[in-house]
Specification:
The structure holds two protein chains of two kinds. Chain A has eight helices and seven strands. Chain A is an alpha+beta fold. The longest helix of chain B is centred in the middle third of the chain and has 27 residues. The chains are: A alpha+beta, B alpha+beta.
């Protein structure tokens, strides 16, 4: 198929950016979206134009590196990551708009690459269980109820890609945070730090410039791992409890 | 099985004496190699004794010592967190935008540990035995025993961190069994065990970043190791965003930079996975051990065309219910498989291996799939001159268990397959083909995980030490975390106990030289101004490696490959085209540096494969097979680690042999008939 691509190009964080149109031809429907961009980049390299920078790594939907707003949707039209999106979701002659994640807390580094360091700093503020190496008790000495462990797992599948933030009109990272709060809060090992964790993470989230949650739900529908919206309820519940306790 | 001599004094084999010399003219014979810190005594006591004998570093002194750790996967992330907790000053580096993205995250199946929760006869000794045997008797027994010993601690540690392993109704941990063993010792988190373990290590690491013990450098790529007076004292790294060439000095350097499977271009590795850190260290004096040992996984989604950038693994559990076949007649290969009658199908694994059938070991399943396609009976799209795919057919299983039964067991895999191929595997057979997904070879290390450069330690897939010629399923995660959490922190202190080391600064001639080398290389990439992209060289290298150093290797093929790689290298340096600048984010420039290191590694892999005229584990030499076409080891000639020393630019690599002597296990020919 032949396509027209409208792509955001920006030389670096400080320079202004603009949309550029490119034509690609002979795209197979078996290609992944990123392989289609590889084709474009080979073409640009041959023409003497600098290839387009975009983030990607595992290309199997698990590392969370790839991003892209595709026709205004985070990771494009399917419920998956951009690297697992295939060209059979498009048709010959389509015009496709490709932009970086749009969020104040994710500044553009170059072209389609953004800086998601704010997510790491939210984790640093409390998204862990303090357990130094060697200090762990025997693994089966603390049983964890199966349903709670399952819920913990289901939300721990978050890949930290940032689609939730990019999709949210407020640029909120509540789904990302809620997933971590719920993952650690459902496990017995996560209880000692449960309420300081939520307070510290929310403070860091706000400090980073992410917006507040107004229950729109775009985040959950954009999430390639289908993290449910109720993790945000859990986040708010834990936060209320923490504040009542004076944490 | 059983311990041969509990005192650990009696060897069960003698040193090997190589008769053949296939690689004559390609290498220089070197002095034999001995692990200078190899432990002795009863195998079950070796690690305990060593932990006690290794000197301690006083907590007040740890604060004055600096440690560089490159890579943030299981081995690097776990080590950085643990060293930070202990109070050292740690600098951690990764090329990704976050340490959470390292490729350990993609491991699916699980992690082995000798907990014996199922009371099915598992023990440290059995895990040790299975791992040495699975590695086709080409690993060091002391290292493997230690791995089995610390395996149980890993599970404790991960649970304490909040890793959500699968659990039973009573809330206790669940296990499953995994390829090649008869006990259930694999802990898992659905098909995402690597992800959950990595997130655990990542969170522990970020906790130390917050505590100020670890300084994190994301989007940084190590491009050189700094060696001062024969000792590793730091690295040169490039800030991938600003392009700045940075010098980082330390008391000790740890490489946890993963495997080099991407030398084949197409593999299940991440796009960024590379050999550069390890190869740069090799060029500075670190020996590269058994580089030809590659594991090729039989059940991956096949290549769909020339544009393909990456291969995706499908869990090998699928072989429990799927039947593998190709058409008997070449002319049927383009037909809809559902139109090919039963009598025209060749269920070749069931035919050749009637007792094991579709469940033969990974290497056999892979090699036979290649044979069928080489005969022209492959299916799916034409890639090059052949169709590269075989059918994995669930129609019998669907008839037996119903569609619901199959859905329950494999739904996520079927979905993934459908997403990538656009075909519905409930209706038409899957197509699968083998793919490179792990390398057992890597930088040579001693029992302390120290390379042949003092002060340079290597952990995880980047080293060669624990898997011999073949790795068992669910053992990669075990080794990464064992090295990072429990082994390295206990061996590196013996080295650091000699501190303080001589003071050096950025004006030291060795540091200046390393900086200049890196700068000149970058300038050279940008100034060639030829016509071909780095990616096109990578792809061509991959074709050569896959064809001649892939599932089956032969003397003639390897010689041919070496010539082709040398030509490719010469062309690279005259015809490469990299656009953009050195002082900004430039992914083409990054790629160029990685590709040329892969090219150089590829040549060494072929020389290693040429020298090893035996078949063992993932290394199958056409010249060394039984009458039935099965792998044939030559323990009398090759029960050694091939450790290659860099022979200088344009020079020949130097081969050092480290004999593998077993005291707790007896070598046997692997059998699956």
């Amino acid at each position: 198929m032949n396509l027209t691509l409208n792509i955001w190009r920006q030389p670096n964080a400080d320079a202004p950016g603009a949309m550029h149109a490119y034509a690609v031809e002979g795209i197979s429907e078996d290609m992944s979206f990123l392989e289609m961009l590889d084709v474009l980049n080979e073409q640009l390299n041959a023409q003497g134009e600098e290839p387009i920078a975009f983030d990607h790594d595992c290309r199997e939907g698990i590392c969370g590196t790839c991003s892209l707003m595709i026709n205004g949707q985070a990771h494009g039209p399917e419920v998956t990551t951009t690297c697992q999106l295939h060209m059979r979701s498009f048709t010959d002659g389509d015009s496709i708009t490709i932009e970086p994640w749009r969020a104040g807390a994710f500044p553009v580094v170059k072209d389609l690459v953004v800086d998601r360091g704010a997510f790491d700093r939210i984790i640093q503020s409390g998204g862990y269980i303090s357990a130094n190496t060697g200090s762990a008790p025997e693994a089966n000495s603390v049983p964890a109820p199966r349903d709670k462990a399952m819920r913990a797992f289901n939300v721990a599948t978050c890949i930290g890609c940032g689609a939730c933030v990019a999709a949210c009109p407020n640029g909120s990272a509540s789904l990302f945070m809620g997933a971590k709060i719920t993952h650690l809060g459902e496990l017995p090992q996560g209880q000692p730090e449960r309420y300081t964790r939520v307070v510290d993470m929310v403070a860091q989230h706000d400090h980073e410039g992410f917006g507040g949650c107004t229950n729109i739900g775009e985040c959950a529908s954009a999430c390639p791992k289908e993290i449910p919206l109720d993790v945000i309820s859990q986040l708010n519940k834990d936060l209320r409890t923490a504040l009542k306790q004076g944490k | 099985m059983g311990t041969i001599d509990p005192s650990g004094m009696t060897a069960t084999n003698g040193p090997s004496v190589q008769q053949s010399d296939d690689a004559h003219g390609y290498y220089t014979p070197g002095e034999p190699l001995v692990d200078p810190v190899a432990p002795t005594g009863p195998i079950s006591q070796r690690w305990t004794t060593r932990k006690f004998d290794n000197r301690l570093v006083n907590p007040a002194n740890r604060r004055k010592m600096s440690v560089i750790i490159v890579g943030t996967g299981l081995a690097g992330g776990a080590a950085a967190a643990t060293m930070g907790e202990a109070g050292y000053q740690v600098k951690s580096f990764c090329y990704q935008d976050s340490p959470r993205r390292a490729h350990s995250i993609a491991a699916q199946g699980g992690i082995n540990a000798a907990k014996n929760y199922k009371e099915d006869g598992d023990s440290v000794h059995r895990l040790f035995y299975d791992t040495v045997k699975g590695g086709d008797y080409r690993s060091r027994e002391s290292n493997v025993y230690r791995l089995a010993e610390v395996s149980a601690n890993i599970i404790d540690q991960c649970v304490a961190q909040g890793v959500p392993f699968a659990r039973e109704y009573g809330g206790l941990l669940d296990n499953r069994s995994f390829g090649g063993v008869q006990v259930s010792r694999t802990f898992y988190a659905r098909g995402q065990t690597g992800q959950q373990l990595l997130i655990g290590a990542y969170q522990a690491l970020e906790r130390q970043v917050a505590a100020g013990t670890v300084e994190m450098f994301t989007r940084h790529e190590m491009l050189e190791v700094i060696v001062v007076d024969g000792t590793a004292r730091g690295i040169i790294a490039r800030d991938l965003v600003t392009g700045e060439i940075e010098t980082h000095l330390a008391d000790v350097v740890v490489l946890a930079t993963g495997g080099y499977g991407n030398v084949f271009y197409l593999s299940t590795n991440a796009m960024g996975s590379n050999v550069t850190a390890a190869w740069r260290a090799h060029r500075k004096g670190a020996y590269m051990a058994n580089p030809c040992y590659t594991q090729i996984h039989p059940t991956c989604i096949p290549v769909s065309g020339e544009h393909q950038s990456k291969l995706t693994l499908m869990s090998e559990s699928l072989r429990n219910d799927g039947r593998i076949w190709v058409p008997k007649k070449k002319e049927d290969c383009q037909k809809d498989p559902r139109d090919i009658p039963e009598e025209d199908r060749d269920y070749y694994l069931e035919r050749i291996y009637p007792s094991f059938g579709n469940l033969v070991p990974r290497d056999i399943a892979s090699r036979q799939a290649k044979n069928m396609c080489d005969e022209g009976r492959g299916v799916g799209p034409m890639v090059g001159d052949f169709r590269r795919g075989v059918y994995l057919d669930f129609s019998d299983a669907i008839a037996r268990l119903g569609k619901d039964g199959i859905e329950e067991k494999y739904d996520n895999l079927f979905d993934m397959y459908a997403r990538i191929t656009g075909e519905n595997p409930y209706e038409t057979p899957m197509r699968i083909y083998p793919a490179v997904h792990y390398v057992m070879g890597g930088l040579w290390v001693d029992y302390h995980l120290q390379s042949s450069i003092p002060g340079l330690f290597v952990t995880g897939e980047a080293n060669f030490s624990d898997h011999g010629a073949n790795r068992l399923g669910a053992s990669a995660l075990m080794q990464g975390l064992a090295d990072g959490y429990f082994v390295l922190p206990n061996t590196i202190r013996e080295y650091l106990a000699d501190a303080p080391f001589s003071k050096i600064d950025e004006s030291h001639p060795a540091v200046v030289e390393a900086q200049q080398d890196v700068q000149q290389r970058i300038d050279r990439f940008l100034s060639i101004n030829g016509t071909r992209s780095a990616d096109s060289y990578h792809k061509e290298l991959g074709h050569i490696m896959w064809e001649y150093c892939g599932m089956e290797r032969s003397e003639d093929g390897l010689r041919k490959a070496i010539d082709m790689i040398r030509e490719l290298k010469a062309d690279f340096w005259t015809n490469l085209k990299v656009l953009g600048t050195a002082d900004s984010l430039n992914q083409s420039l990054e790629k160029a540096g990685r590709v040329i290191d892969f090219i150089e590694l590829g040549e060494l892999m072929c020389i290693d494969a040429l020298n090893r005229r035996e078949s063992c584990g993932g290394h199958f030499r056409a010249e060394s097979q039984t009458e039935d076409g099965e792998a044939l080891r030559h323990d009398d000639e090759f029960a050694y680690v091939a450790a290659w020393e860099f022979g200088g630019e344009g020079g020949q690599p130097v081969l050092h042999k480290e004999d593998l002597i077993y005291t707790a296990i007896e070598m046997k020919q692997r059998s699956y008939k």
